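#struct-help
A.M.: can someone run this one for me? Single chain, 666 residues.
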Amino acid sequence: MDFRVVSGGGSIGSSSGATDDSGLASPGAWTMGPPGTQELVASADGLASVTIRATSLDYAVGLVILEGDGQRATTGQAVPLPVQIGVVGTTGEALAGTEVSFTVLEGGGAVELATAVSDSGGVASPGSWTLGTPGPQKLGASVEGVEQTIVHAYARGIPAKVEFVAGDGQEAMVATAVPIPPVALVSDSTGVPLAEIPVFFQSERDAEVEGAEAVTDADGRASVESWTLGTVTGDYWLEATVEGGNSVEPARVVARALPGPAAQIEAIQGDGQTTEAGLPVPVVPKVGVLDEYGNAVPAEKVRFEARGGSSVTPTERDTDEDGYAAVEMWILGTTADVTYTLAAEAGDEEDPVGPVVFTATSTPAVYDIEILLVDSSALSAGQLDAFESAELYWEDAVTGNLPWAIVLKASLERCLEEGDIELEVPGDRVVDDLLLYTDVREIDGPGGVFAAAGPCQIRSESGLPVVGLMYFDSDDLDEMEEEEEGEHLEGTILHEMAHAMGFGTIWEYLELLEDPVELEDPSGDEDPHFIGEEALAAFDSVGGESYDDGEPVPVHDRGGYGVANGHWREVVFDDELMTPYLDGGARNPLSIVTLASMQDLGYDGVELGMADDYELPESEPQARPIEPARPRSPSDILAVPIAVADRLGRVLSYLTPLHADRRSRR
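D.P.: on it. Structure tokens below:
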């Protein structure tokens, strides 16, 4: 018989063969061709041929990983994606129906199925793969006769702590990166560093983080690529959290953003002022230095240049922690009606920032009084007018300008405390020529004490006051405003201002009072009198030439502290304004003797023509009443220590009033 393969491409052992005793013949081994239908035809002479059919089955020659390689999961948990293995047959196509075995090779984990048969797509899966101990994991997939395929994974440890091990407490300029990128360390509950742990970094405000998502390395460390601080100075934090870190406290580092280089300079205070020629401006010029983002720049040198004949002290100053720099004093030139300028610049002299320019206009030098009312709302319009009129009177009567003086904040606070005045003092200040703190308050109702005044700081060079106090009983002011058409209201204010200017308060200091009354133990024989030459001449001019009841100019010799030794003698001068008692009727006159005594105190430019018409009474002194019905005040000279200070405000000594009843101020 003859044998031949007619389909499938297989082969047979022999193409012919004789039948045996049983009538059977064989081609020997029939080797199948490629998968599919196989046909073998057998024929013999004289007989019909026979076709023998068979099917050639495929088999696995390779395994491929379709999904699930290189995954990460926490130890003891399954990887997110099931592992899928593809079985490849001899034709290179997926092979179904092949049993694949799965074996954990490393890590100690477990798979759901140890074996699986490939589906119609040639895919086999072990189901879930639960990872073992932290570290690398291996899962082997195998089919008999085919090289094993390895699937890899990584089991992450369970984070218990995240902490920064580098990069805390740094400083950098605004809008720049810190020098050392912060590094976080992640460890488990035993302190062992954990690799492959996702770490998330975040900051605040406008700070920027490059590499905000990182994974710990083999040493358990993860770092940002860069951390750029924001544009506002101050502290910034960077926080590190770990994946699934509900039970793991985030870690933080803090860095401080420092201001950048000086880029702007601006005027803070002191521009556009007006003051007398030759005087310091009342408000010292102050500048602020800022970087390009508007942050204050401390420790930046600022240079000041006074122009037009003005002068400034100092010419250089470093900004403080808030970026401010102020001069101590800007003194205008001596020419009046001139606008002077002061320039300020910061930064490098070769490439300065600025300048910013301050202006101040000079006015003619005159004697100026500033009345600072503690609460002007407590006064009526008429009372405010009376204060203004009294101020203008003394400014017209005394025209000579006094040297300006600095009064320190501590001295001003002491002065206010002595006068029981509650008022905030913002700082040191320049005074030209006299500052009068004035308080109108309830004291003891109508009558009794209704006013008191006196200096609390005088100039060491001349002895003339620079700061004084006045207070008035509000009830008495109201009553005086209603009586005599308010004639005595302005007169009382004039009287108290005179005491604050030095009348009766600095006579002994200037050695202008002789034979004063010993207040604690008066003998009754004292004859206090004022010895200033100008006042003596004026006293003669108003009828004092015939005075023979003691030495001129007679000073009041009764009434205790605040009355005696500080007023003209009542029985001699009668209704003159600067006697201790208020006389009814028209406003008490302020005589030429009082204005002349101001010349003796050292005031220049005293306009004697401002004095009221006045003559000494013609009646004999003893025939006149000793004490009129209404005293001006039981004690209208304040019993406060008087500071003697130099031009820069440094207190050199104190004048303590002797035998003073301090209660008279209340």
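A.M.: thanks! The first strand starts at residue 2 and ends at 7.
D.P.: also worth noting: The radius of gyration is 54 Å.
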